[in-house]
Amino acid sequence: MLIRPYDRVEDEASLFDMILQEGGGWSEYLGPSDRHRYATALASSTTYVAREDAVVCGYVRCRGDDGLGVYVHDLLVRRSHRGRHLGRALLDRVRADFGGQPVYVLSDVDAYYEGLGYPRAGSVFRVVDGTGGGG
Ligand SMILES: CC(C)(COP(=O)(O)OP(=O)(O)OC[C@H]1O[C@@H](n2cnc3c(N)ncnc32)[C@H](O)[C@@H]1OP(=O)(O)O)[C@@H](O)C(=O)NCCC(=O)NCCS
């Protein structure tokens, strides 16, 4: 298993296949214009993939805040590869590469992060229910 920075040419198709297989709320990234926007976000964020041969079996996408902290937006492990602590390995890679900075996760699965032993740090509120515009 190799964890390395995301490479759009090598990883995009397999990563989107993983999102397709996951379904549920992740499908929001797959609408025609959403997919294009998300592909851009993957490339402009700090994104790491876990790869086994040519298959992307997990990824983490985050953004730094000019040295003030790092915010993890997405963490996904392919269903077939769960139970091997890949999620933690991906988060460890973020922690290692942003050494010394606080790392925060925007969580949808609190029990998972609590199980990893991370302390809670605030909540997220939706100020505007955006429609995806914004050019
Ligand atoms: C959550 C996720 C990233 C964990 O993947 P993983 O690295 O394969 O994690 P593992 O299956 O190895 O589990 C590690 C530990 O977390 C626990 N865990 C896994 N998923 C969990 C969940 N949804 N809720 C609570 N605990 C969970 C496991 O029981 C395991 O505990 P153990 O060490 O005592 O055995 C993966 O299940 C996933 O991609 N889920 C869908 C997307 C998602 O929910 N992403 C995170 C929200 S932003």
Could you walk me through the main structural features you see in this protein, from its secondary elements to its overall organization?
The protein has a single domain (2-115), classed as Gcn5-related N-acetyltransferase (GNAT) (Aminopeptidase). The model has no long low-confidence stretch (mean pLDDT 95). The relative contact order is 0.15. The chain is built from four helices and five strands. A five-stranded mixed sheet has the order 1-2-3-4-5, with helices on both faces. With 135 residues, it is α+β, with helices and mostly antiparallel strands. Coenzyme A binds at residues 75-77, 82-88, 107-109, 111-112, 115.
Question: What is this entry, summarized?
Answer:
The chain has helices at 8-22, 32-44, 86-97, 110-115, and strands at 2-5, 46-52, 55-64, 70-77, 103-105. It is an alpha+beta fold and 135 residues long. The chain has a five-stranded mixed β-sheet with strand order 1-2-3-4-5, with helices on both faces.
